[in-house]
Amino acid sequence: MIDPLIALLVAGLLAGITALLFWPERGLVIRWRRSRQISERVLAEDALKHIHEHEMKGQPATLESVAGTLHISRDQAAQLLERAEENGLVSMDAGMLHLTPDGRNAALHIIRAHRLWERYLADQTGYDEAQWHGQADRIEHSLQPADADALAASLGNPTHDPHGDPIPDATGQFVAHGGQPLTAIALDHPAQIVHIEDEPETIYAQLVALGLYPGMTVRLIEATPKRVRFWANGDEHVLAPILATNISVVPLPQTVAVAVEDDSETLADLKLGERGEVKAILPRCRGAERRRFMDLGILPGTVIAAEMISAGGDPTAYRIREALIALRSEQARMIQITRHTETAA
Amino acid sequence: MTTATSIPLKSPPQTRHGDDATPTPEDVLALARTLRWEIGGDFHQTLMETIYTDAARIADRAVTRSGEKQRFDLDRTIDHLVTSRRWGIPIMILMFTLVFWITITGANIPSQMLSDLLIGKIYPLLNSIAAAIGMPWWLSGILIDGMYLATAWVVAVMLPPMAIFFPLFTLLEDFGYLPRVAFNLDNIYKKSGAHGKQSLSMMMGFGCNAAGVVSTRIIDSPRERLIAILTNNFALCNGRWPTQILLATIFIGALAPIYIAGLVSALAVVGIAMLGIIISFLMSGMLSRSVLKGEVSTFSLELPPFRPPRVWQTIYTSLIDRTLYVLWRAVVFAAPAGAVIWLIANVTIQGTSVAAYMVNFLNPVGILFGLNGVILVAYIVAIPANEIVIPTILMLTVLLNGISGTGQGAGVLFQMDSAVATKGVLVAGGWTLLTAISVMLFSLLHNPCSTTLYTIYKETGSKRWTTLSALMPLALGFAVTFVVAQVWRLLSGIG
């Protein structure tokens, strides 16, 4: 019989090697497969995307900016762009890069594929929003135009990705969100978030953590070069201006001015026996979850009473349109309500 | 956002070619494209809200509600009692203990009767008929010793507990109590990324994993449902309880003084079942954070009003839908398994049976995991039904070790009249306390039976999830038994 100590050691070693190779997301096999995906085509496509982005901003891209964005050396970038020029995708003019019509079409397709995929991940899967961008960055290079069209059709031809960016349609047309940076609007004036920039990732993650989403109403309180103070989501938020510029808003007519401060009340704030009327389902609740809420009849105007708390302390049972439905606290926090002052009979 | 009413009012200029020109299809499409951007992405929701508002208005106008005040209050009283912090959990434990107790005590007698009838009476009768009509020995061997006996075994062990457990469970469900259990336990399940209703499918899994897998249909969130399906096998099923009880009694209970032997073996069995529950939580958490994290997850749990259970209807449907369905599937899979068991014991190559080749080949592997070749072969051929694992082990042990004076012949399943005699055979086959513990662990942690696998495939429609549901517990079982066996040997100093 094999010595048990040796057997254990060998097995532990084998388990360790297997984990090292096949660990999801971080294993060597998956890393190797990913590194192979970063082919020249992928780099070229990313370059086109970058040039397009700069054209939209009205400040043409340069060799340096391409090299910087793609994390490649200047020589590599020069080679890449040379080949793109030979293929008639890019034209260079005094150091400024411009897209040819063909190049623009290619760039728009990549952008369309990216944003459609983000929409798909947001609406039809359970992936966390921190993962949308990275996954879409990989899939955008393998989605053929026909695939993108089929995906768009199955999603109901969405116009915007979950960050508020417009999705170009099959002909490459789109309407920009037309927002301005949060720092640029008038003080004490209601505005709606139309877009939250999802790059760089760390800044986006901070904004998401604050609970900011496209579609949300905000009101600027103070904007100095040092800090930006604003109301949103029923809370006062303070951001560094560099972060705040990643939020784009459009001003709303003054009449829309709701008392933003009262928005903090959600279903989760109801005590047993209290009732509230649904004001809205928060924008960050989307996809299947949102559809489920609506299927249950949780819509603006519905009156909901909190009736029981589980013996385990968490799900609370609510009386919704005569049915008793249990919702978890994190779900209840996505439903904004106005409290009815009189308690339920 | 542009409101829906403004759409028809806008008539973009490009549709007007002349005063009375009809728009071409291209114009309409172009108009649709521009309007799409104006409407924005939320119009589906706006549409739905409008439909609901209309529906609610119509309903409010047309429906009058008669006051069902009395019932409603009784409902509330029961609800507050069964979900209260103080009484909720004790009531639940009481209810389920009662259900299990009724099942176990109630199933013994019919199980024995069925066994007497199917194996004690019909089996010899079939054999004598076969002899009378001059059936060749190999044909009667495959048909009667193999297929009939295995099927009869599965039916005798499986039918009575299921015929009692499922109706009882369905009655609780019909009364409306089970959703409250899910409601009470949800907070625990939430921590491992699962749905409170998984407690119910797991309970059902204690009866039969195939039925447990079917019962996950009550979980309407795709991710949580898959978790419940993939971990249902960790609920020790009806086919495995007898194995656990037998081994715990003859190997673990025997260690203790006689007056607490029963208690010790009972604790060992409960310990294994608890281990299964703990592992199901751990695996649920791992699955929801790894392979299943892309699946959609939405929680909702409806607590229907209590109502008096419809007893006869419930018994009828649970017998037809659950018991007979599962039994039929088991029979379909058990009969061929019986034939295979008979064949490997009787087909010989150069004077040695196929079973002996398999056992000898697998024996070194088995030793590594604290098992032996016979046990591994028994688990391979008994994939269709866990009920026949122990009979197969006994048959193979007797056959291959040349133990005389017991057994019914090559390929014929049997069980011993007494636990002591069973232990005698097993010890003669080289079993130790470690073997018994390893088999108990492996019996909890191995691939689901083929009935369950087939059901998982039917329910998920995916080869991938079916494969995972088979390999995950198997890998876990080998890992656990390996570590236990090696550590055991290390500590006890047996090289």
Architecture overview:
The complex is a heterodimer of chains A (345) and B (495). Chain A is an alpha+beta fold. Among the domains of chain A are: 72 residues, Winged helix-like DNA-binding domain superfamily/Winged helix DNA-binding domain (Arc Repressor Mutant, subunit A), CATH 1.10.10.10; 82 residues, SH3 type barrels; 77 residues, Roll (SH3 type barrels). Chain A has twelve helices and 13 strands. In chain A, the strands form three sheets. Chain A has a six-stranded antiparallel sheet. A five-stranded antiparallel sheet of chain A has the order 12-11-10-9-13. In chain A, α3 packs across α6. The longest helix of chain A has 24 residues. The radius of gyration of chain A is 25 Å and the shape is globular. Chain A starts with a helix and ends in a 5-residue tail after the last strand. By secondary structure, chain B is mainly α. In chain B, α11 packs across α17, α15 crosses α16 and α18 packs antiparallel against α20. The N and C termini of chain B lie far apart (77 Å). The N terminus of chain B is likely disordered. The chains are: A alpha+beta (345), B mainly alpha (495). At the A-B interface, α1, α11, β10 and β12 of A face α2, α3, α4, α7 and β1 of B.
Give the tags.
heterodimer, A: 345 residues, alpha+beta, Arc Repressor Mutant, subunit A, SH3 type barrels, 6-stranded antiparallel beta sheet, 5-stranded antiparallel beta sheet, 20% strand, globular, B: 495 residues, two-stranded antiparallel ribbon, 20 helices, 73% helix, 1% strand
- The proportion of residues in beta strands of chain A is 15-25%
Strand content of chain B: under 5%
Q: What is the percent of helical residues of chain B?
A: over 70%
CATH architecture of the domain at 180-261 in chain A: Roll
Q: Output the structural class of chain B.
A: mainly alpha
Q: Based on CA inertia axes, which overall geometry of chain A fits? A: globular
CATH topology of the domain at 180-261 in chain A: the name is: SH3 type barrels
What is the succession of H and E elements of chain B? HHHHHHHHHHHHEHEEHHHHHHH
**First CA to last CA of chain B: what distance?**
77 Å
Which consecutive residue ranges of chain B, at least 5 long each, have pLDDT under 50? 1-18
If helices are DSSP runs of H or I spanning 4 or more residues, what is the number of helices of chain B?
Answer: 20
Low confidence ranges of chain A: none
Radius of gyration of chain B: 30 Å
Strand elements of chain B, count: 3
Pair with the biggest interface:
A-B, 56 and 60 residues
